[in-house]
Structure formats: structure tokens, C-alpha cells
Amino acid sequence: MAESAPGTPAASAPVTPGTPGGPLFSAHRIDSMSYDRKSMPRCKCLPVTAPTWGEPHSCFTDFPAPDVSLTRKLGAEFVGTFILIFAAAAGPIVNQKYSGAESLIGNAACAGLAVMIIILSTGHISGAHLNPSLTIAFAALRHFPWKQVPAYIAAQVSGSICASFVLKGVFHPFLSGGVTVPSVNYGQAFALEFLITFNLLFVVTAVATDTRAVGELAGIAVGATVMLNILVAGPSSGGSMNPVRTLGPAVAAGNYKAIWIYLLAPTLGALAGAGTYTLVKLREEEVEEPRQVRSFRR
């Protein structure tokens, strides 16, 4: 092998993740359920006047560069929501069909484990929102671009409806078990759905937007929160926390009882939960040595 000339450093390949002696993960990480405003696509500018050398030109208007990865994000949201609704609604359906075989703990585990595995598998692609209330809350707090909200919600709604009709075909005529309807009065159901969604979004906002939170364990933290909420509210309100968790099975079963509760309460609870964590979140100047970013990789 030829030796390098004296005084000339030998060329070497850059250290990559997984290389012995190199970092296990790359240093640059971005929150998966939010977005980095500095990394958003830059705009293409139409100059009004031709600038002279070294001087900036003035722009007539800006044309936003297309986000080529949006299709992949929507695909991940559709598949993730499909898996979530299939698992979360299948538990109660199986429980109904086989006379309590799943139990409340089994129903909670179906939803919580589904959320966990989806976050771990698709969080780096779309952020694994899976919930219109979460998407709206993140957009309201500037963690997500408003222009992508309609597309995300469309993907989530379509994934939920498709999963619900698959369940209808597989478990007919036991689909009614997967519909979330209140067994308490409407006021109590509304309060429960608001509070459990508040809990969920408080945790989600922490692990998704704060680099000092649990980070890489976010899937476990969010899945555990979903399980806890269903154990608390499942027998009373159904433990939806998600408009599409109720909407898809309601469309497939034709049962729209008190559906307004499951559309409005989770959205208000999500805004309150995300906003509350934002208020109590530690600021950079309040931490002596910020820890390394450990949030979802995207």
C-alpha cells in the first residue's frame, strides 16, 4: 500500500454511526412530533431587479419549495392509524365475542402496545401523530406547520375508517364492541375525555418537544399513558382520547351516539395539555448543562 508523502495527513473515511470507535447515533437529531423551523424548505425567490455583484437582490414574491417527503409522512400516518384503530377496537370486539376474554387490562394493553410500536416504527417518518387532536394542538403551539394539518387529518380519518371496515368484515356482527359510547352521563363523559387527553398530551409534548425528557423511551412513555388512561376511563367513556378512535368504528357500525363528545373533548384536552407543559417547561437558561438531545429521531 502506497505511503502518503511526509507532512501530508493520511486521508481517512469519516466516522459513521456504527463504526467501531464512532458514535452510535448521529449527533444531529430533531423532534419527531414537531418540526425544526430552521430546517424547513427554503423559498425560491423571483428577483425584481438584477443585482450587481455582491449585492442582494429584491424579491417580488416567494414560491415555497415543495416538500417531497410529505407523501411518505401521510403514508406512515395512514398505516400507523390503521394499525392503532385495528388493535384498539379489536380488543373490545374480541372481549364482546368471547365473553370477557380480554378484560379491561387486555383492552388497555391492545391500545397502549399499539401506540408504542407505531411510535417506535414510524415516529422518525411522520412523527406518529395518529390523532387529529394532537396534530391540531402541535400546530397551535407552533410545533407543526398548519399547512400540513388538513392532509394529516385526512390520512388519520381514512386510516381509521379503513381499519374499522376491515374489523366489520372479520368480526361481524360484533363490531358494536369497538364503538366508544359513554356509560355515564354526557357531562361526566366529556370531563373524562378532556382529562385523559390532557394527561396524554402533557406527556407527548414533554417527550416530543423537550430534549431533557425521556427521549428515546418516548414510545414506552406514551404507550403507558394510553394504558393508564384506558384503565381509568375505559368503563365510563370508552377511553378514546382520539376523535378517529371513535369516528371510524362509528361510521362502520352506524352508531353516532354522543359522537360530539369524542370530537370536541379530546381536542380541547389536547390543547390544554400541550399548552400546560409548554408553560411549565424548563427554559434553556434554567439548566446548567443541557443533556444531549434524545428525542425521537426524524
UniProtKB/TrEMBL annotation:
Entry keyword Transmembrane: yes
GO molecular function terms noted in the UniProt entry: active borate transmembrane transporter activity; channel activity
Entry superkingdom: Eukaryota
Pfam families: MIP (PF00230)
Bilayer-spanning residue ranges: 74-93, 105-128, 187-208, 220-239, 259-280
InterPro entries: Aquaporin-like (IPR023271), Aquaporin_transptr (IPR034294), MIP (IPR000425), MIP_CS (IPR022357)
Entry's localization field: Membrane
GO CC annotations, alphabetized: membrane
UniProt region (Disordered), positions on chain: 1-22
Record keywords: Membrane, Repeat, Transmembrane, Transmembrane helix, Transport
Sequence similarity: Belongs to the MIP/aquaporin (TC 1.A.8) family. NIP (TC 1.A.8.12) subfamily.
Protein name: Uncharacterized protein
Species, as recorded: Rubroshorea leprosula
Species classification: Eukaryota, Viridiplantae, Streptophyta, Embryophyta, Tracheophyta
